[in-house]
Design brief:
Length: 339
């Protein structure tokens, strides 16, 4: 793949950009906006129901024995990132609009991604079973921890309500469908496994739906009039700084704690990423009725999402190349040693 091709957005990112343009030109208004809001609620519940049906209890049991790795990933996701958010908050408050500052802090509260964490771990030669468990449990634990972290990080900014109310709302709208899907797994698990593209379609479709509704409402409220171009550029810079710090510190933690190479790769990819698939639906619930709307608040997450995909793709290929180089001498020597 050429260097230029690597810099081009993937299909889903292009769809996100097209959705933002559509919401800018043709935002939903009035009664149509109310109906769209109800439809997105149903789509979000279906999304988490299907994720619950997909998660295997056997995988959880298999991976639970690697508790040091999982604790390290969770500490990075729900401990390191909030600390980095606190560190960057004064800078963000100075450089960004209030909505973009809230959005940057919100990124720091989210769980890890699932699909891309596992995919990059696999490409790089990491511990894939551990990545499956860490990423899946991170998404599940985030249903409770993210609202609490939102309350701690964002309340001082005036951007969120009571953390306990957030936990309650997330439990009712996300956790209950997830648990229902998981309990029904013995009956519907086979169907879900045979139709995995259905979950991918639901993931992407739900995100695009919520983004369209959020940006449409924000455009009606004057999003682009109150968001300077320079603030968007600086959001990209701060997102890149946040990702760089997370990658450096997760890599350092893996080495410092004495993990094997495969486990360090898993910690790097699972502990440095944030989930767009969880973040968009959660934002709709946690910031319902927020005066500034969701459009500006979601921009830092969308930018961070694309950055982490591009950077981690490069890192994964580099790890894979290093493994191939390390294995090459052994492969070259085997004919001679075998006579």
């Amino acid at each position: 793949m050429s260097p230029l091709r690597r810099l081009l957005p993937d299909g889903f990112t292009a769809s996100l950009l097209a959705t933002v343009v559509l919401a800018t030109l043709l935002p939903c208004r009035g009664a149509a906006a109310l109906w769209l809001d109800r439809i997105t609620d149903v789509a979000i519940a279906l999304l988490f129901f299907l994720h619950g049906a997909k998660l295997s209890r056997e995988a959880i049991v298999r991976g639970a024995t690697h508790w040091r790795l999982h604790l390290t990933v969770f500490a990075c996701t729900f401990g390191l990132f909030p600390l980095l958010g606190l560190l960057l908050r004064p800078l963000a408050h100075t450089l960004l609009t209030p909505e973009l500052t809230l959005g940057l802090l919100y990124v720091c509260t989210l769980p890890s991604t699932v699909q891309s964490s596992i995919a990059f771990t696999s490409i790089a030669g990491g511990n894939v079973p551990a990545a499956v468990v860490s990423a899946s449990l991170s998404s599940l634990i985030g249903i409770v921890l993210t609202p609490l972290l939102v309350g701690l990080l964002l309340a001082v900014q005036g951007g969120a309500g009571s953390p306990l109310e957030g936990v309650r709302d997330i439990t009712l709208q996300l956790l209950l469908p997830f648990v229902a899907g998981h309990l029904l797994r013995p009956w519907i698990g086979g169907f879900v496994e045979r139709h995995r593209p259905l979950i991918g379609f639901t993931d992407r479709g739900t995100i695009l739906l919520v983004v369209y509704a959020a940006f449409g409402a924000a455009v009606v409220e004057g999003l682009w009039r109150s968001t300077p171009i320079l603030a968007l550029v600086l959001t990209l810079v701060l997102d890149a700084l946040l990702l760089a710090l997370a990658l450096l510190l997760t890599a350092f933690a893996g080495r410092r704690l004495g993990f094997a190479r495969a486990d360090r790769i898993t910690i790097l990819f699972c502990g440095s990423k944030k989930s767009l698939a969880s973040g968009v639906p959660m934002a709709k619930i946690l910031f319902a009725g927020h005066a500034g709307g969701l459009g500006g608040l979601l921009l830092p997450l969308m930018i961070f999402h694309q950055l982490q995909l591009m950077v981690c793709a490069v890192l994964a290929r580099r790890f894979a190349a290093q493994a191939n180089v390390a294995a090459a001498p052994a492969h070259g020597a085997s004919p001679g040693t075998g006579g």
